[in-house]
């Protein structure tokens, strides 16, 4: 028997709506879901290949324990008992700073993060490492300092903008917005709108642009400073907006007043008149800005983001229609953790702050591999493969071998799982109820509670259930009154009343409420994640309730339950809220209710980014004459989530791209196997020559180097990246500027 079922893609953060044909518990065909209100029948090649994520020979089916060099199957009872005992021993002997969590949620399921972090806090630790902290924390830090909350970062108002400045963003391949290709195609053809792309490479998005500034790799900060300087020197800034909404402008104005923008453009290898025209257009039109990994993983990463915020502010493009706006949320991506507040932990060895509740993955190898008495000794990993996904594979392998305890919770026997002491099988994102919380839309707020479309193996558990059982083993869940269990069997409304009464009588139970809900309503619903969605909707703040009213829901005691029922009734997804488009300034949370432009800690850094300094720093090194962009978005990569390479059969999925002139100068040819070397290591890889790649630059995609059925396919680009090549504030890797050498492979 076959059946079409509503679901969504889990291979990127856009989670486009899909319909899957399921036969005999197998996904056999996939098509875009035209009923999905967010993606409206849009999906890329990755989404249409979710069957390769779900069905493959590396799937885990039962708990495993490493004995010697081999893994042996064990029961859940044994696995959780032993892990709990080891965790308790390590924390008791070495303190809570000896424990860290990594991952939690992935791109398609965020429910388990709530449970994993509650378990972490219950054990006394605050060390949480996440992929977002490998990309976006410099952005969060900049917005936290300037508008008051790290979670209130902005996106561009794509419906109303008439000029989009895309910086280091190849949206045609990386998406980063709903229906990216439809949108980019539309804006490029609209005579009333403009697309301006800043990217060293002639990317698929750059080919659509009205103006493409093919800047020299590594000069994003210098160019952004030049754009600001041109605007201020020409008097194009929006002074009324500055007077009304900005503070500390007079403290940053001197940074740009006498800045030599013409000389900066020369160093960036750009035409000054063209840059000046881009500055004029951005300052005088209904403009917006979207920067991606080209900036977030580039030189001067955090400061470049800060300069972009200054650019938006002086042009009056923050919190306004068509500009950069703060989207709405059901749940924010994390808490505001100001690095100036000592209650928020810094990493012990490397000293990186907590940003949005997270620590940078780049720092973890050093936090393990040191002699400090409170070094990391135990790491719990869920839905993450750091041995392939994060910078410096070699450093991770060395560090993980020195841990007292490494536990991996995942659906597949990943490279990280193979290094673990225990491997626990998670249900896949198509075998469990789950959702994602950072669907970045404006002004609507979107939700899709993805339902199970295939049945799991009997021994598989939701990650949230695994964390709940571990919390129980560790003694963190008190005795739960029978009244809660019985209420859960009657109705959600009666359960809500019983839960409220219990929390009121036991105030300390609020800290472990997710576990209480899991053991009561979760047991009754057959899904911890589903039960938690219901509970979350009962505890939303007043601001969200106002957003829900704008989406058509009625205010009242049953609003949370009404929204929950609507989510169940709409497996294709629905709008569950709408922010007030006329009051985006409400997201400004600084003390003076203005955009605070001056960040004193980085003044010397910003003013040091001069044409003279950058020219000196960017000189080609004899040993490493090329700049590697480590991480290329393509139709053929899906991070490390699709392990079976069959989905790319017949495609050139993993090559090093180089300009033909550079290849000719080295005596190299297209399809030749070459050796790429950096300070971190070397890999042998097929050469692809293309004029889309800038002279002096090479590009290797991410998401390869995975072992499947005893063979390794492609190369893991993180063999070439050093974990110490990172942003000085956020610790994010500088993957878009890695010095390298390329040479022919000499046959031995």
Automatic annotation (TrEMBL):
It comes from the Bacteria. Keywords: Iron, Iron-sulfur, Metal-binding. SMART domains: Molybdop_Fe4S4. Pfam families: Molybdop_Fe4S4, Molybdopterin, Molydop_binding. Residues 2-58 form the 4Fe-4S Mo/W bis-MGD-type domain. Gene3D superfamilies: 2.40.40.20, 3.40.50.740, ADC-like domains (2.20.25.90), Dimethylsulfoxide Reductase, domain 2 (3.40.228.10). Belongs to the prokaryotic molybdopterin-containing oxidoreductase family. This is Molybdopterin-dependent oxidoreductase.
């Amino acid at each position: 028997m076959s059946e079409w079922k509503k679901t969504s893609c889990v291979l990127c953060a856009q989670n486009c709506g899909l319909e899957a044909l399921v036969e005999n518990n197998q996904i056999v065909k996939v098509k875009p879901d035209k009923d999905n209100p967010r993606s409206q029948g849009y999906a890329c090649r990755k989404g249409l290949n979710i069957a390769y994520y779900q069905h493959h020979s590396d799937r885990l089916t039962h708990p495993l324990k490493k004995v010697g060099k081999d893994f042996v199957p064990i029961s859940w009872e044994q696995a959780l008992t032993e892990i709990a005992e080891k965790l308790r021993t390590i924390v008791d002997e070495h303190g809570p700073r000896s424990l860290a969590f990594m991952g939690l949620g992935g791109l398609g399921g965020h429910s388990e993060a709530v449970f994993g972090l509650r378990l972490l806090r219950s054990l006394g630790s605050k060390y949480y490492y996440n992929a977002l902290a490998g990309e976006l924390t410099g952005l969060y830090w900049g917005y936290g300092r300037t508008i008051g909350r790290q979670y209130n970062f902005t996106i561009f108002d794509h419906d109303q903008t008439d000029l989009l400045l895309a910086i280091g963003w190849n949206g045609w391949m990386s998406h980063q917005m709903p229906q990216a290709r439809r949108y980019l195609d539309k804006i490029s053809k609209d005579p009333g709108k403009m697309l301006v792309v800043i990217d060293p490479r002639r990317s698929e998005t750059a080919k659509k642009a009205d103006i493409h500034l093919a800047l020299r790799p590594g000069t994003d900060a210098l160019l952004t400073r030049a754009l600001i300087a041109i605007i201020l020197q020409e008097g194009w800034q929006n002074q009324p907006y500055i007077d009304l909404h900005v503070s500390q402008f007079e403290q940053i104005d001197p940074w740009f007043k006498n800045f030599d923008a013409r000389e900066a453009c020369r160093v960036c290898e750009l035409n000054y008149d063209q840059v000046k025209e881009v500055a004029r257009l951005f300052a005088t039109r209904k403009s917006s800005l979207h920067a991606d990994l080209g900036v977030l993983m580039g030189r001067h990463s955090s400061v470049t983001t800060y300069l972009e915020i200054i650019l938006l502010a002086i042009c009056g493009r923050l919190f306004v229609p068509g500009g950069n706006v703060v989207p709405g949320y059901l749940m924010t991506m994390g808490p505001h953790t100001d690095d100036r507040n000592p209650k928020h932990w810094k990493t012990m060895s490397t000293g990186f702050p907590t940003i949005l509740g997270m620590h940078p993955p780049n720092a973890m190898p050093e936090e393990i591999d040191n002699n400090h008495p409170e070094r990391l000794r135990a790491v719990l990993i869920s839905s993450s493969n750091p041995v392939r996904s994060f910078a410096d594979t070699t450093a991770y392998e060395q560090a993980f071998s020195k841990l007292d305890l490494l536990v991996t919770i995942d659906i597949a026997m990943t490279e990280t799982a193979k290094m673990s002491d225990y491997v626990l099988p998670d249900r896949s994102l198509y075998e469990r109820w789950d959702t994602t919380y950072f669907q970045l839309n404006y002004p609507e707020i979107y939700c899709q509670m993805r339902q199970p479309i295939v049945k799991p193996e009997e021994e598989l558990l939701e990650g949230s259930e695994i964390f709940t059982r571990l919390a129980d083993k560790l003694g963190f869940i008190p005795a739960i009154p029978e009244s809660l269990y019985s209420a859960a069997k009657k109705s959600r409304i009666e359960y809500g009343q019983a839960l409220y009464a219990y929390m009121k009588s036991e105030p300390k139970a609020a800290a472990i409420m997710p576990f209480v809900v899991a053991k009561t309503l979760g047991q009754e619903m057959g899904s911890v994640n589903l039960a938690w969605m219901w509970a979350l909707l009962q505890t939303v703040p007043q601001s969200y309730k106002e957003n829900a009213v704008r989406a058509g829901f009625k205010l009242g005691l049953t609003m949370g339950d009404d929204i929950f029922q609507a989510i169940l009734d709409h497996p294709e997804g629905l709008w569950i809220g709408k922010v007030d488009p006329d009051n985006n300034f409400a997201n400004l949370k600084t003390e003076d209710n203005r955009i605070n432009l001056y960040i004193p800690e980085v003044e010397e850094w910003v003013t040091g980014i001069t044409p003279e300094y950058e020219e000196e720093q960017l000189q080609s090194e004899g040993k490493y004459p090329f700049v590697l962009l480590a991480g290329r978005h393509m139709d053929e990569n899906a991070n490390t989530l699709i392990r079976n390479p069959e989905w790319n059969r017949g495609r050139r999925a993993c090559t090093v791209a180089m300009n033909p002139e550079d290849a000719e100068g080295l005596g190299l040819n297209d399809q030749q196997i070459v050796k790429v070397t950096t300070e971190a290591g070397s890999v042998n890889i097929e050469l692809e020559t293309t004029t889309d790649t800038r002279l002096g630059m090479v590009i290797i995609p991410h998401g390869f180097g995975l072992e499947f059925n005893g063979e390794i396919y492609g190369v893991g680009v993180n063999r070439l990246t050093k974990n110490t090549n990172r942003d000085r504030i956020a610790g994010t890797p500088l993957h878009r500027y890695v010095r390298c050498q390329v040479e022919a492979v000499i046959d031995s």
